[in-house]
Amino acid sequence: MGLTKKRFIADFQAEALHLFADSLENLSPMQQYQALAFLVKGYYAKDWAQTKADYDHHQQKQVYYFSIEFLPGRLLASNLLNLGIKDTVEAGLKQLDIDIPDLYAQEGDPGLGNGGLGRLASAFLDSMAADGMAGNGNGIRYQYGLFKQRFVDGYQVELPDDWLRDPYVWETRKENRAVIVRFGGSVYLTPCDNGGLEPVYQDTDDVLAVPYDIAMVGHHNHMVNTMRLWSAEPVPGHAHSLAEKSRINAITQILYPDDSDTAGQELRLRQEYFFTSAGIQSIITHYRRFHQDLHLLPNFVAIHINDTHPAMAVLELMRVLLDDGGLSWEEAWQITVQTLSYTNHTLMAEALETWPEEMFARLMPRLYQIAQEVDHRFRQTYTPRFGGELIQRCAPIADGYLRMAYLAVIGSHAVNGVAKIHSELLKSSVLKDLYTIFPERFNNKTNGITPRRWVQVANPELSELIDSAIDTGWRSDPSLLVPLAAHLHDEKFLKALHTAKKANKEKLAAIIFDQLGIEVSTNAIFDVQIKRLHAYKRQLLHVFGILEAYLAIKNGENRPSRVHVFGAKAAPSYRYAKSVIRLINAVADLVNNDPDCKGKLAVAFLPNYGVSLGERIIPAADISEQISMAGTEASGTSNMKLMANGALTLATLDGANIEIKDAAGEDAMAMFGLTTPEVAQLKASGQYSARAIYEADPTLHRVVDMLTDGTIPGITTEGREIQDELLVYNDTYLVLADFRSYVEASHKLDALWQDPIAWAQAALKNIAASGQFSADYTVARYGRDIWDVLPATPVGHGGE
Prior knowledge:
Blueprint: H1 5-20, H2 29-58, E1 62-66, H3 76-83, H4 86-95, H5 100-105, H6 116-131, E2 135-140, E3 148-152, E4 155-159, E5 171-173, E6 179-183, E7 186-191, E8 197-202, E9 205-217, E10 224-233, H7 242-251, H8 262-288, H9 297-300, E11 301-306, H10 313-324, H11 329-339, E12 340-343, E13 354-356, H12 357-363, H13 365-386, H14 388-394, E14 397-398, E15 401-403, H15 404-410, E16 414-417, H16 420-428, H17 432-437, E17 442-444, H18 451-457, H19 460-470, H20 491-516, E18 525-530, H21 539-554, E19 562-567, H22 575-592, E20 601-605, H23 611-617, E21 623-626, H24 638-644, E22 648-651, H25 657-664, E23 670-671, H26 676-685, H27 690-696, H28 698-705, H29 716-727, H30 735-753, H31 756-769, H32 775-787
Parallel strand pairs: 1-2, 1-11, 2-10, 11-12, 12-16, 16-17, 18-19, 18-21, 19-20, 21-22, 22-23
Antiparallel strand pairs: 3-4, 5-9, 6-9, 7-8, 9-10, 13-15, 14-15
């Protein structure tokens, strides 16, 4: 949009007066932020309304992306960038003598997600808008986020994440689009005049689903899509007791409630049906404003199931088509399969969501009836061809449980993994039987990230350096980063790259000192691992690498200085992960308070990791730790973000790490560890002995002993628990098996660090190759291959 600095200042002053009846200089930083955010919302409001009107007028096919979590991060800087007015606004703020970083910092992170799943969903919404694709998000408006993480004596403590305490400027309540979601009660089928069966509901527990819409602003294209989040409220006019109101409010009160007991499981199931039903009803209501024939639904609507949480979309769309649309089963099923698609995000069978039949039938009786019929017809159709044993293994209902991943595959026309190796492993492992039946449905769509946020917003120093080398075309088409490789032997550019990195490390060092009171050297290697705390992600292996370096320093060995930076949350009920957090903090206390390590080794575990903290850590990283056991990480996206900012990846051949290696070159990263086939063979053989490896490697022996011999103070219980997992329970995720290879790969990076030009060249190779991992290209491939929704804005090749 065209905006002058003078016009912006006048608009900003008027908005402040309108909102707070006072002048800008008298407002608090939070009030100044709110005034600016409301002003920006006004700037794109016309485009938002026009985009929706254009979609309806031209009857464009629309994508509805269902996800139980979204992690959009702060939106002010991103919206300014996408509107093309960020530089103008910041110039105006500077003239008004407003502290720009402090103003941006007033915005909190929406508590709508936890990790990679939610961040990917938000990246896709951002990219659909940038590509000019008609795309919508569908999720839950959680009153509280997962939790606000604090460390007390090294232990994780969970505090409420009351992110809605202040009004959330970017949302718009749409009460006129509310729908009713029915739980419980009983339902029976009665014959109707057309020969079909009509459901009759009795004693249902009705909940009002009220949508809150958030704009997803396209990049310089005047297109604004919508993320719709649903809030649970009592139905107006119904008599609700306090207990009933509390039960309704609980549905959208908190992200991922503890499901370690039956009540928690029921709440999660209610959450999943709530946002899925509300979304499906909303879609069909909108569709029927323009079309009478439900048979044409797949021509105008694509519904995508992001992981298994919204898998009930299969059953709910069937319910609406059968009960409200009056279609036959065969008609409804054909429409459902053509409309739905599904992304799988896990290779671990235990992570595939299942629900007890009794619980499901009690909470959603009509959906359970439909699920039984889906199961019956699936068995009837495919048992003669594939045999009862295979069908029993992959049927949607078996052994007293509804199996949601299997339901999603059976009810969708397309199923994808999120990295090349992940997609292949789905076919040979967790979804092997369904691949045998439906091979044509399976495909790969490697995950992607949004360089606009992770480079342009988060790393202006690097962005401006890239502009100076190859102009600004890469900002709209990241595939144009490739020509940066021409500067691999430009010593001046490589030194400037080092300077940009140093500036970001100084910013992060200030945060570390402010939050933890630790002084770190910005001349050190910043070695970063930022991801959900889980045993398979192997933060423990990283800790063992730190302890190996600690012992070497104590023995007088001279190594390049390293600062190890962690960011991770553990699920409140995941005891082992919380023990690893305690261990990391105890190791940090040991290392950071040892005079022998001063200036040589430091550990910083920054609490409450999220999008905004990631925007400060990632640009400063020199090493990106992607060290999951091969065959466990579906894709990963932090690997892509760190790569795009010039970090060198220290990684196993897992998930998208393999594609990063293929893109940047093996010499631009450090690979280690067992491969996926080697892991599978070792597990299958039954020959793996963690204790034998422990006994054979003196350094590893010493490191493991440190868990329980008092060297690391304050971890008597946690150290024993972790040591038992390794030696008594035989090291489930092969930490000991990969330890020596990991240390050797880390030493290779130490050696490379001694040659600053060679290091900068490796960093530059990563940056130049990172464009292909832009989510702009990923969603364009989804649109072309799965959704049949093409971008309105031309999209670069993205490495294809």
